[in-house]
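I'm curious: can you give me some protein's one-letter sequence along with its backbone structure tokens because I've never seen that pairing?
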Amino acid sequence: MLKLQKGSISIYISVMLLSILLVISSGIATLMLNQIKMSSQIGNSVISYYAAEAGIERCLYNMRKDTGICNYTNEPLDNNATYDTTWNAGGYPINSTGHYINTSREIEVK
């Protein structure tokens, strides 16, 4: 009878240890998957930023040429990114927001 109890205790301890290891490994796997997803979106963020910068540059170019046209909405670029640019004539700031897939980045020039 005593041998049966020692075996039961060791099985119980091993099951508990395996359960704890499973919880820890599941948590680490979840963190790693989130990091991988975020790192894949960094490229989209950079493209969004440069799309916003393209909107600012276009507005500054038009200001130098005295066309006064600086308000754009969903202006497409060759890489399927878009930008929205707003400017109040005669003053600053110029606001530009770049969009690519599910990311957006905004730039303001004063």
Summary: The chain has a mean pLDDT of 87. DSSP finds one helix and four strands in the chain. The helical segments are 2-64. Residues 2-64 form the longest helix (63 residues).
